[in-house]
Design goal:
GO biological process, one term: response to stress
Number of domains: 1
Keywords: DNA-binding
Order of helices and strands: HHEHHEEHH
Strand content: 5-15%
Largest sheet: 3 strands, antiparallel
GO molecular function: DNA binding; DNA-binding transcription factor activity
Helix content: 55-70%
Radius of gyration: 18 Å
CATH topology: Arc Repressor Mutant, subunit A
Structural class: mainly alpha
Number of strands: 3
Pfam families: MarR
Distance between the termini: 71 Å
InterPro entries: HTH_MarR-typ, MarR/SlyA-like, WH-like_DNA-bd_sf, WH_DNA-bd_sf
Strand order of the largest sheet: 1-3-2
Number of helices: 6
CATH class: Mainly Alpha
CATH architecture: Orthogonal Bundle
Length: about 160
């Protein structure tokens, strides 16, 4: 056979996949302690980090590992739990926003200290500041190439409706 199984491309991607799986497994156990799945945590964190704590459902799908229908199911479940709510988009009746609620922010406040501790111990703390900067830039380059929708909704195109 002419395939070189020692090809550094296999090694690079294999190491990335193994590191990601290891980190994901460590984080999942901590999320479960707070009654969240990893995807629910991702949704809450992305909403909390977005302008006005909201994203269009299609943008949320583009920023996560979920399909549009998958994001709808997760948001509907989280809506029933009071962690997020859906809002109609005033400029496009076909679109709606997912918005993190006070209960969702409170759940993040419970989860984040332990999550940050795990990230520091098993991810950030394993790298020097220069390595972390270079790694982050490399990941952004790859992300932008394979998932150009990942930054959709990160700027605020329209103001939120006035609260009454």
């Amino acid at each position: 056979m002419g395939i070189n199984f020692d090809d550094p491309r296999f090694t690079a991607f294999g190491l990335f996949a193994e590191a990601f799986t290891g980190l994901t497994n460590r984080f999942a156990a901590q999320f479960e302690q707070h009654r969240l799945s990893s995807v629910e945590f991702e949704v809450l964190l992305r909403l909390a980090r977005s302008p006005q704590n909201r994203l269009r459902m299609t943008d949320l799908a583009g920023q996560t590992s979920l399909s549009t229908s998958g994001v709808t199911r997760v948001v509907d479940r989280m809506d029933r739990e009071g962690l997020v709510r859906r809002e109609a988009c005033p400029s496009d009746r076909r679109s709606s926003y997912a918005v993190i609620t006070d209960a969702g922010l409170a759940r993040l406040d419970e989860v984040l200290p332990g999550h940050l501790e795990l990230m520091q111990r098993w991810f950030i703390g394993q790298l020097s500041p220069a390595q972390l900067t270079e790694f982050t830039e490399s990941l952004r380059t790859i992300r932008d190439a394979v998932n150009p929708c990942a930054t959709a909704g990160t700027t605020d195109p329209e103001p939120a409706p006035a609260a009454h």
